[in-house]
Amino acid sequence: MADVHRLDPISRVSGTTTVYGAWERFVQGEDDIRGVRPEVAISWHRCRDQYRVDPGLKEAPIAVAEVDHTLEHDVVFADLGFRAASVAHEVANVGGIVTVTDATGRVLAEWGDPATRKLAADANLATWFCWSEQATGTNGMGTALETHTPVMIRGAEHWCQAFHEWTCAGVAVRDVVTKDPIAVLNISCWRGDLPSPAGAWLANAATRTQATLRQRAQDGSAELIAAFNHARSRAGVSLAAVDPAGRVVIADDTASVLLGVPSCTPAKDPAVRWNPGLPEFISAARYAAKQASRNPDWVGSTQLFTHLSDEPTPVTMHPVFLAGHLVGNLVFFGVSEGEQLPRGEGAHQHGPPQRIVGTRENRMVLLRLPEISFAESDGNDVWLTTDQGKLRAASGGLDKLESEQGDAGFLRVHRRYVVNLGRIREVERRFKGELVLVMDDDENTMVPVSRRNAPAVRRALDI
């Protein structure tokens, strides 16, 4: 939770070295952002170039009337609400307010100092208004939804000038399976720093809520495995069980070959489930999960290319529920039943991004894919080894890099490494068949290949 702490004051006057000066230049179309933290600069780029948020906006817009979320999300909202209410008195004593939003940035509840709440109401920092980046620009709640780490937004770091008097810190609670945001807990103060315990409050609330979600995900794994074993004894076809993100929890011998994962070895922990490395399959599984969450009786089918197959294979997906909550799908291979998935569902419709953003001090570096040799995770950070040196990736998480760039030749070879297949110089075979990749960076870095990822590496390199 080191991102949430007391920072030196941010100047609100013009100047070449102040954040406000950088903000003035940036909203006028310049890209000189000296003195701006990388995570804030990246957010500004989204607000100006992607979302086109008016920096002169004076209040948040009203949220959409209907929001699609599951009962699982209601559990998170209630849990965060309880934790927010428990610290509301202490936050109010220092003139602060606490808010909880859903995944769209809609404020669901608010507690804290009455005088500050009245000031917040002037900017629509209140229930039923939207504080996503897309609606309201850089702010604690919206920017937390866009990132995988806690965020602090102070003064002129806000995209909209009307909010430059505020300081806020937010942390998103994410689904432990899909990594999609569910809610944000945020603390805000007007014309002042956040209370010193703010970081600990946010960290504790997020950690406890994530722990609850992780336990429920493990319970869902057990239900998926039980459904798999029951269906396997009756189906007579190859079978796998996948979670809502398309990751494999368990597969029989035939399905394991088709998906390129270990056979009949259950992966209960959502952090170590197997990625089949088939973007169309993953996308189809995600689509099936979305449909089934809306209609529990939904069953769908499509045809997909699998590993070691020159022709598409029919697959049918049946949802599996635990106490009314969708925990994944059973995938039957060689069977075509139910609703046909939309044509092309599962394909990357618009292709992967052609640039990856790295950061060096206060500068963003736009990298072409061939410039990147490999990526390595280090806690919550991802470090890119590139032709321009070692850079921290702007977007955290190897899973995100792998899913976005899998079609562009990037492959997960270890829980800590994703490599650019085109940048492998040598493959070294070691004792008991272990593989080590020698990359073509300046250091000729040796990247280990985990046992479970070795088959995918051999297929990709045809060795």
UniProtKB/TrEMBL annotation:
Q: Per the UniProt record, which residue ranges are transmembrane?
A: none
Gene Ontology MF annotations: DNA binding; phosphorelay response regulator activity
Superkingdom of origin organism: Bacteria
Q: Which residues form the HTH LytTR-type domain?
A: 356-463
- Record InterPro entries: GAF-like_dom_sf (IPR029016), LytR-like (IPR046947), LytTR_DNA-bd_dom (IPR007492)
PANTHER family referenced in this protein's UniProt entry, alphabetically: STAGE 0 SPORULATION PROTEIN A HOMOLOG, TRANSCRIPTIONAL REGULATOR-RELATED
* The name this protein goes by in its record: Transcriptional regulator, LytTR family
Species this chain originates from = Saccharopolyspora flava
Q: What is the lineage of its organism?
A: Bacteria, Bacillati, Actinomycetota, Actinomycetes, Pseudonocardiales
